[in-house]
Design brief:
single chain; about 140 residues; mainly alpha; 434 Repressor (Amino-terminal Domain); 2 domains; 2 strands; about 45% helix; about 5% strand
């Protein structure tokens, strides 16, 4: 049973064209060949050629690898993949485990004995600053 590949969209073809132009411009400066790019990406040279020539579509993972190799931002060759990566970053950065749930006051100088139960005279306004964390104090 043979399956035909889905044709690339015009946007994906434009991404490939921009990527190939960046590669052609930078390959001498960075001492790159399609073979060396392929080695760094963990794929064969034909796979890199397929990305550069618009045969295979770029994805976020390959785009991120290529930015490191070509020393450019994803946005320079694929604004849509750059948006996709940014949306993934936002989803990760919104995880509840990363949010601060507790705040603790910071005092840089306190007279000895001031934290005894009888002398608790500090108010929120006495703190120099507040430190946020997701760890509850013991």
């Amino acid at each position: 049973m043979s399956t035909k590949k889905k044709p690339l969209t015009q946007e994906q073809l434009e991404d490939a064209r921009r990527l190939k132009a960046i590669y052609e411009k930078k390959k001498n400066e960075l001492g790159l060949s399609q073979e060396s790019v392929a080695d760094k990406m963990g794929m064969g040279q034909s796979g890199v050629g397929a990305l550069f020539n618009g045969i295979n579509a770029l994805n976020a993972y390959n785009a991120a690898l290529l930015t490191k190799i070509l020393k450019v931002s994803v946005e320079e060759f694929s604004p849509s993949i750059a948006r996709e990566i940014y949306e993934m970053y936002e989803a990760v950065s919104m995880q509840p485990s990363l949010r601060s749930e507790y705040e603790y006051p910071v005092f840089s100088h306190v007279q000895a004995g001031m934290f005894s139960p009888k002398l608790r005279t500090f108010t929120k306004g006495d703190a120099e600053r507040w430190v946020s964390t997701n760890q509850k104090s013991q």
